[in-house]
Specification:
Layout: H1 6-49, E1 66-67, E2 73-74, E3 121-126, E4 137-143, E5 152-156, E6 164-166, E7 172-178, E8 181-186, E9 195-202, E10 213-216, E11 219-220, E12 222-223
Parallel strand pairs: 3-12
Antiparallel strand pairs: 1-2, 3-4, 4-9, 5-8, 5-10, 6-9, 7-8, 10-11
């Protein structure tokens, strides 16, 4: 077995110790380079992965092409006006006129007073005097129309009046409805321009009572 001198072993150990720091430095540089390469690669892959996706294309709505009378489409945005033929004077029909009816009076409204000058049948009631020998009430019916007409007079008094008598009853019929209402009717038609005069007695000497309502053929009488 060969024996090495002690000085040679110590010199090798000193050289090994002297070279250790450089080995450490080289190892550290290699580690740093490796980390830098890894960082660069990861940064590039992250940039590629995080790139924003392109937005989908936007399509603006377009108006459909109008079809021209000749069959071909007309360009959009061009206004086409068709001139309608004017109607001739003979083809123009007159517009119908709407007739407005005047409102008819309600039941609660009083009938209009008949005038002797109107072309209709009118009546006048003149109040007499009370008492046994007093003057009778006088009812005059006049035909102002141009033809013979039938006449009918409706009288309404206070409920105390229970009877009505006609002194000259020729050609006149009388009947009572009750509650002071009476109806007088001519048995013969009244000729144009004629006047029929009737004298009335109410109950027992009550000719001075004014009627609450007097109407001839639906028109109000004149009260005197």
């Amino acid at each position: 077995m060969a024996v090495r001198p002690e000085g040679a072993a110590e010199a090798r150990t000193a050289r090994l110790l002297a070279s250790v720091p450089w080995v450490v430095v080289l190892l550290g540089v290699c580690v740093l380079v490796a980390l830098l390469v890894v960082a660069l690669l990861s940064f590039r892959t992250r940039e590629k992965g995080d790139a924003p996706r392109a937005a989908p294309p936007v399509f603006l709505p377009t108006a459909p092409a109008a079809v021209s009378p000749t069959g071909g489409p007309t360009p959009t945005g061009v206004e086409r006006r068709t001139v309608s033929p004017r109607p001739s004077r003979s083809s123009r029909a007159p517009s119908p006129r709407v007739a407005t009816a005047s409102p008819s009076p309600g039941r609660g409204s009083a009938p209009a007073v008949a005038s002797t000058s109107a072309k209709t049948v009118s009546a006048r009631y003149e109040v007499g005097t009370d008492g046994r020998d007093g003057t009778e009430a006088v009812l005059s019916v006049t035909n102002s129309t141009g033809q013979s007409v039938d006449w009918r007079v409706e009288l309404a008094y206070d409920g105390d009046v229970r009877a009505l008598r006609v002194n000259d009853d020729s050609g006149v019929s009388v009947w009572g409805r009750g509650d002071g209402e009476f109806v007088l009717r001519g048995t013969r038609s009244l000729a144009p321009g004629d006047t029929r005069t009737v004298r009335l007695r109410l109950g027992w000497g009550e000719s001075g009572s004014r009627p609450l309502r007097c109407a001839v053929n639906g028109l109000a009488c004149r009260l005197g």
